[in-house]
Amino acid sequence: MTEAPKPPQEFVTLTPEQVKARNRRNIVLALSIVAFVILVFLITLAKIKENGVGPP
Amino acid sequence: MTIAQLEDTRAASIGDYVALLKPRVMSLVVFTGLVGYVCAPGAGDAVLAFAVILAIAVAAGASGALNMWFDADIDAKMKRTQSRPIPSGHVLPDEALGLGLTLSVFSVLTMLLAAGLLAAGLLAFTIFFYAVVYTMWLKRSTPQNIVIGGLAGALPPAIAWAAKTGSLSLDPLLLVAIIFFWTPPHFWALSLTQKNDYAAAGVPMLPVTHGAKTTRWHILSYAILLPPLALAPSFTGLGGAVYTAVAALGGAIFIALAIRIAASRAGEDLGSEADKPARAMFAFSIFYLFALFAALLLERLLP
Known about the structure:
Chain A is mainly α and 56 residues long. Helices cover 64% and strands 0% of the residues of chain A. Chain A has one helix at 16-51. Chain A starts with 15 loop residues before the first helix and ends in a 5-residue tail after the last helix. Chain B has helices at residues 3-8, 14-20, 23-39, 46-70, 72-77, 93-115, 117-141, 145-154, 156-165, 170-193, 195-201, 206-209, 211-236, 241-263, 276-301. The termini of chain B are far apart. In chain B, α8 packs across α10 and α13 (211-236) packs antiparallel against α14. Chain B has 15 helices and no strands. Chain A binds chain B through residues 10-15, 17-18, 20-22, 24-25, 28, 36, 39-40, 42-47, 49-50, and chain B through 3, 6-7, 11-14, 17, 45, 47-48, 51, 54, 106, 110, 113-114.
């Protein structure tokens, strides 16, 4: 027995302008994530400086 | 939204997402939060201070995005807000909701990491109060919406204070009270000139539900209460001579402008000269609050 063929899936066709905007959004998102990682690292260093290493 | 509609949508720019965060509101919140942090006792660490102010700014932005997501129907009906990213079709409502929720979580986590449970709890409460209590409930149900909802905008100095010291005292609560009592006359002055817009959108602002005259007298009542409250930090030691002078002079002008409104016909004939006192009050109220907090900052930063 053969499987019923799947209906063709509909996709959005992005204009060059939309692709550019999506790329820009992705870059900003990536930079934000990197900035957050750096911020957490710096907060950790500041906390270690304030409280020392070990249980509070 | 259909595929055809999606293909028609103009690609959202970074500016559209920034607009979702209400940068003008954010700047005021950042400023009052910064003053709260600087005025709190203790040396403080520059990195932690930066993280705290950033968390407050991002939380304010997240609240703005959640507000625009929920209020898109109202925004579409009002001239002042029609060009916002959602009603103008540049950003999808779900994107605004996603951005708001994500930034809320990140801001509270950052605050928790940098400053502990009290500050993070207060920050989470502020987001909840603005997005749920004010936006979803009060705004559409009572003319006291901006009075009670104003608490969300008033809390940042206390959050910053709690972040630096781990506790709260009378001084940060006075700063909260000043912003809390400043909010009604500030927004009512604006709403007097935009009464028809609010009425068309079905928002029960005071001028819509109780008329312009009642609103003018309410503005005067709050304007009389605010200056003595603004002078209170001079008695607790939080404010010095510069602050006292700014609070006294600014307070006198604030009351004078409110008397001018009460005696005027502002809000009766929209767009006419009669609205001038309301516009003057709105503009001066921003300057007055900024001057009060700038004076506190100046007294801490200058030797």
